[in-house]
């Protein structure tokens, strides 16, 4: 089996098992991420790979977590912080432009 086929199988499996933090709209929205990053001697085997969306993959970066659930809690909390900050910023812009 070619590498891309293995990665596609991981993405499909994770989408079906709802292992990913957010539900992506399609498999094209997913990236395959190393649970233990390569920068920290993570292996290239399927047990060390998980599918995640691009923003979650970026937030996780090269952090190492004790387990998948710990990583998921951190990444989803950070996403919510970023989403709230963005909503506040856009609300201030709208209020400022409405008063001008």
Whole-number average pLDDT?
A: 77
Just name the CATH architecture.
Orthogonal Bundle
Kindly, what is the distance between the CA atoms of the first and last residues, rounded to a whole number of angstroms?
Answer: 61 Å
Note the overall shape: elongated
Number of helices: 3
Number of domains: 1
> C-alpha Rg, in Å?
17 Å
SS-based structural class?
A: mainly alpha
Q: What's the level 1 CATH class?
A: Mainly Alpha
What would you say about this model in short?
By secondary structure, the chain is mainly alpha-helical. It is 54% helix and 10% strand. A two-stranded antiparallel sheet has the order 1-2.
Q: What does the model show?
A:
The chain has a two-stranded antiparallel sheet. It has helices at residues 3-17, 54-60, 68-99; strands spanning 30-34, 49-53. The mean pLDDT is 77. Helix 2 packs across helix 3. It is built from three helices and two strands, in the order αββαα. It has one domain: DNA Binding (I), subunit A.
Question: Strands, helices and their partners?
Answer:
Elements: H1 3-17, E1 30-34, E2 49-53, H2 54-60, H3 68-99
Antiparallel strand pairs: 1-2
What labels describe this entry?
DNA Binding (I), subunit A, two-stranded antiparallel ribbon, elongated, mainly alpha, 100 residues, 2 strands, single chain, 3 helices
